[in-house]
Amino acid sequence: MEMICRVDEVIIGKYCTTLKDRKIPAVSKCPPASKKKLDRPVKIDPPDSGYFRPPDLDALFAVSHRAGACV
User: Fold this and answer.
1) DSSP 8
2) pLDDT (0 to 100) of residue 3
3) C-alpha 36: how far from its chain's center?
4) CA contacts within 13 A on the Cβ side of 4
5) CA angle 60, 61, 65 (to 5 degrees)
6) Residue 70: how many CB atoms within 10 A of its CB?
7) Which of 9, 16, 42, 65 is deepest in the core (most CB within 10 A)?
8) Measured distance CA(9)–CA(28) in Å, rounded
9) Which has the closest alpha carbon to 53: 65, 61, 42?
């Protein structure tokens, strides 16, 4: 009897099918991953008229020696 049950299961499995529109669709290929934008530095040209250079610029950054200051 056991053998008959197995044969019946195989026969039933062959003839019972699901309609095509009811089946789970086949796995489609995934789209490619998005590409990362290249991080290029932006080139900044110097101004045509030049940079502002005040006449006393060196005086602003001049270091004077103070008594008791750490050197």
Assistant:
1) H
2) 46
3) 6
4) 1
5) 110
6) 4
7) 9
8) 32
9) 61
- Paired tokens of 42: 């932006």
- Other CB atoms within 10 A of residue 32 CB: 6
Mean pLDDT computed over every residue of the chain? 73
Ramachandran region of residue 31, left (φ > 0), alpha (ψ -120 to 50) or beta?
beta
In degrees and rounded to multiples of 5, residue 47 shows phi and psi of -65, 150
Structure tokens at 29: 């290929």
The Cα angle at residue 32 between residues 26 and 34, in degrees rounded to 5: 140
User: How far is residue 13's CA from residue 7's CA, in Å, rounded to a whole number?
Assistant: 10
CA–CA distance, 57 with 67 (Å, rounded to integer): 24
* Regions of the chain with pLDDT less than 70: 1-15, 64-71
